[in-house]
Amino acid sequence: MSGPEIQERLLFVSSWFCPFAQRTWLALNEKRADYEYYELSLKDPATNQWYQLGEKPKWFLNLNPLGKVPVLAYKEGGKTHSVYESLICNEFLEEHLPKEQTLLPEHPVAKAHDRIIIDSFSSKFVPLFYRILLRQDAESQKEAADGMLAELRQLEQKIHPVGPFFQGQQMTLVDCALLPWFLRMYILKHYRDFSIPEDCPNLARWTKDMEQLPAAKETQKAPDGNGTYEEQLLFHYQRYADATAKSTSARDFK
Ligand SMILES: N[C@@H](CCC(=O)N[C@@H](CS)C(=O)NCC(=O)O)C(=O)O
């Protein structure tokens, strides 16, 4: 398989269901970037099984040897450049694209604080999201859910009380990095009856506001005619909820 042609225009390699890719998709949209979307199939449609690293297309592994989406690629002076890992992609976009739609505050300390929120969320909250689904006995599900409640309560202390964005009037890389998992809260509700607790009203308000954001709506498209985006995403996560998923996230966050 030859794959997409890499040109000067930015290429965004994604998979419709991937929250990590959605982080970068949000940043691309909010920064009004000119890019081409490429949907990469991470599963074999015949078996519905995830491809192993060696089974992924060579052109893709050349862009990202880790074999994961998202990937950004473009040509400059005849040379192909690629960037991967969602948070690094987002920092790259912030540096590479015009600054009119900046997604980081100006002051170095404020920038550093945003990165601390993102880093802590990625190392603590994200694994807990998968663990609540992947763990199969009530006791260890509760342990993961309690961990997530503690994380939510800490975030509630940090979020702007009015919004609409996490930090107030301006969307930042914090919104891009956190939002995909908040947009998936209904999945935890469905499979594990877990929701944002009542003592986190600002997080609940932010999630609702962000669901309506045009840059976010753009990233929530059903891949085919087999149900709404939400229904198809719910179905995708069934494999996590019954612990049969063979994706890298299922392995990484067990
Ligand atoms: N740390 C990576 C994680 C990306 C990731 O896990 N992407 C998943 C899809 S949601 C993937 O491409 N998995 C490949 C596989 O499971 O084979 C990032 O932040 O970009």
TrEMBL record:
Catalytic activity, reaction form: L-dehydroascorbate + 2 glutathione = glutathione disulfide + L-ascorbate; methylarsonate + 2 glutathione + H(+) = methylarsonous acid + glutathione disulfide + H2O
Domain GST N-terminal: 8-101
Gene Ontology CC: one annotated term: cytoplasm
Family: Belongs to the GST superfamily. Omega family.
GO MF term set: glutathione dehydrogenase (ascorbate) activity; glutathione transferase activity; methylarsonate reductase activity
Keywords in alphabetical order: Oxidoreductase
UniProt cross-references to PANTHER family, sorted A to Z: GLUTATHIONE S-TRANSFERASE OMEGA, PTHR43968
EC number(s) reported in the record: 1.20.4.2, 1.8.5.1
Protein's name in the database: Glutathione-dependent dehydroascorbate reductase
InterPro entries: Glutathione-S-Trfase_C-like, Glutathione-S-Trfase_C_sf, Glutathione_S-Trfase, Glutathione_S-Trfase_N, GST_C, GST_omega, GST_Omega/HSP26, Thioredoxin-like_sf
Record-annotated GST C-terminal domain positions: 107-235
UniProt keyword Oxidoreductase present: yes
Gene3D superfamilies hit by this protein: 1.20.1050.10, Glutaredoxin
Xref: Pfam families: GST_C, GST_N_2
Top EC class of this enzyme: oxidoreductase
